[in-house]
Amino acid sequence: MKEIIGTGNRVLDIDLSRRSADTFLITETDRRLFLGGKGMGLKYLYERLPPGIDPLGDENILAFMMGVLMGTGAPCSGRFAALTKSPLTGILLSSSCGGPFGMALKTAGYDGLLVSGKSGTPMYLEIDSNGAEFRDASELWGKDTRETQNRLNLTRHDGALAIGPAGENRVLFANIAAGHRFLGRGGMGAVMGSKNLKAVVARGNAFKIVPKDPGAFKRISRKATRFINANPFTADSYRNYGTSANVDYSNKGGILPIDNFRRGQSELAAGVTGESMRRKYNTRPSTCQPCTILCGHKGTYADGSVHQIPEYETIGLLGTNLGIYDPDRITEWNEICGRMGMDTISAGGTLAWLMEAGEKGLLPTDLKFGSPRGIGPALEDIAHRRGIGDELADGSRRMAQKYGGGEFAIQVKGLEMAAYDPRGSWGQGLAYAVANRGGCHLSATIFPLEVVFGFLNPCTTRAKARFVIFFERLYAAVNSLHTCLFTAFAYVLEPPLVKFTPKPVLGFLMQYLPAVAINLMDFRIFSRLYASVTGIGLSQWELLKIGDRIHVLERWMNTREGISRRDDTLPLRFLREGRDCDPAGRTVPIEKMVSAYYRLRGYDDNGIPTPDKLQKLGIASLPTRPGPAAPASKRPMPPRKWFKKSLVRLVLFILGRALQSASKLDDDIKAEITDWPDGFSAMFKVLPRGPQMAFMKTTAGHLAYKGAALDADAADMIIFFKNLESAFLVFTARMGTVQAFVEHRLSLKGDIARAMSLTRCLNIVQTYLYPVLIAKHVIKRVPRIPLLQKLWRRLFIYALGIPFGI
């Protein structure tokens, strides 16, 4: 087995329309700016996806990105990131997932997979260390996720992503199965189905991942494991009961969703707690690999069958929120959603809306809170888009837009909300309102500080914006390393300074001096693990800044899709109605917290990142494809774009004039262009409408500079720069031409042989223009020219050729 030291940095780029498979390399610069995982995937989508595209159209891209920790054996590192544009929300969708696929793809030699285009017929991808094969999936179409994976002949070293009927039928909250894990709530399965892509198979075990500093990696991993085994949340609650342990915490805290979030507590919830299900089903671990926390569980049911124990969100949304407290029924519906390939949170939230809409006479339905009758068939109908299921498949926001009842459609930005009532956890309410993908609890998880640990008063606005931002930054970085978010409980709370500070003191600091409390936190395990694997030194504060860059880039992409302050809110139920379990009838003062959040975040009053914020994080200079403008008058223009354009135009002028002069002086250039026909023209052009420069071979046998006068349609050969940023990097010697071609920053239209000939000419010219140390960064091989000859020709070119065109 071959070894990969640190990271392999290869990304597989698949175009289903052309059935092509290419690879490109992740640059060290991108590693430093975006880490990997979510950050790297987001960067590639920003470069390739123009705003305004149809999420279910051919132009959308699926990105599956492995982090640098995948395959190293680091605690809880068996996770990968997936990103696309969501058909449910119309904005960015990112997801973190376990299961065997990530390890298989990484050990096949790839750090990422990008899938674009659309196959004309159902197909699946089979990937190994040699590349990708396109396989017919006609016989798999219509199969559920379990049967599909069973038919793919997977070994213990392989992994697969598979959709079920929900994805095939473009259910807007269809997800993707990866073993018994699922990813992509928000409709990633529908995007996969829209591409006629039934599955992706990775055949792994070709490579072994070895950290650059094995000794440091082992020491840090041992310390991380000690922290996980010492923390009550990771070593007791989640390890023994899984995420269903949250049922008891939420019920006691009054934030358990009941009857479409009308109540927050119920005595009946005792029947669906993690502890009760452990007794009832004799549960045992069934989790991601490698995992130290072991939060996933399976159990044996009364009929002897073995099933995955539903996660907390499933219990909350498909159980208590429908008025159901029977774990057997919740498991049955969880299995239906799993086999169909459908998100349980959105499914449960949409059914709860339907039940309440039926009560209020907005449309007829037999589904009722507290009754299991009809729920299983309704889920099947949604997956197959049958009857009312065809409309429910579009989610609660679209249902409410059609029939009314928007005040009790429990969604944010179109994504059904997770299972924590924000009226009893105001910080979590703010996190929901501003989360980039919609009603998501994993953008920033604040309820443990408010309800579980008691560090923050759950019903005050004080300190909430600052902690939401802290966790947004941290979680964006963790999802890019990539490791499990649950490790944050241990890595943040177990270091001595936090662990041994008396709880009242720590609570006071967090509530009244949050900036001080955050600066006292020690979460260096994350940055040290990254450094030991990659060799790239990183402090914990640099890690947070990278997380900030990733989160703000995602927000900026969403604002280009039209997201603004009006979207950063909660359903009216939480703003106008109190809970039955709260005598004070408190609601969430969301506007005050959002304003504080914007100020601290560096957004303007409309929620748009300011030019200064984009500049400081390096987002303003990232290359991107053109698309519709961001919200009017609020779109910050990237600073110094005029400078880059002017510099590129100047360099093209110098290069063109120098090429003209050198073609008269240098015998090697004369020999190269001898076979070019008279009148042959070539052009450099910066897309989409940037500077350009052309030249033409004359009848006298040398090259004549034509500036920007030549029309692109008349040129015999064009070398395109993908965008202004790419041209700027090359012309300022920050990136060589070879690397630019590898990263698809340069492309060619015309004869390849003549392009190679031109490249050799340019190598000679740049040897005259630049000192050797600079030339080595720009061109792959510096031509050998006698020193005196090089000096007098350089003098001629600079003194007469460039200024006077001689």
Give an overview of the whole structure.
This protein has 806 residues and is α+β, with helices and mostly antiparallel strands. The chain folds into 3 domains: 2-210, Aldehyde Ferredoxin Oxidoreductase,  A, domain 1; 421-639, Aldehyde Ferredoxin Oxidoreductase Protein, subunit A, domain 3 (Orthogonal Bundle), CATH 1.10.599; 642-804, Nonspecific Lipid-transfer Protein, Chain A (2-Layer Sandwich), CATH 3.30.1050.10. Helices cover 43% and strands 14% of the residues. The protein is built from 35 helices and 24 strands. The strands form 7 sheets. A 6-stranded mixed beta sheet has the order 3-2-7-4-5-6, with helices on both faces. A hairpin with a 2-residue loop joins strand 11 and strand 12. Helix 1 (28-34) crosses helix 2.
- CATH homology-level superfamily of the largest domain: Aldehyde Ferredoxin Oxidoreductase Protein, subunit A, domain 3
- Proportion in helices: 40-55%
Q: Structural class of the secondary elements?
A: alpha+beta
| Regions with little confidence, pLDDT below 50 for 5+ residues | 627-640
Largest sheet: 6 strands, mixed
Distance linking N and C termini: 60 Å
Identify the strand order in the major beta sheet.
3-2-7-4-5-6
Q: Which strand-content bin applies to the residues?
A: 5-15%
Give the domain tally: 3
What is the CATH fold-level name of the largest domain? Aldehyde Ferredoxin Oxidoreductase Protein, subunit A, domain 3
Number of strands: 24
Shape: elongated
Q: Kindly report the average pLDDT value.
A: 92
CATH architecture of the largest domain: Orthogonal Bundle
CATH class of the largest domain: Mainly Alpha
Number of helices: 35
Radius of gyration: 29 Å
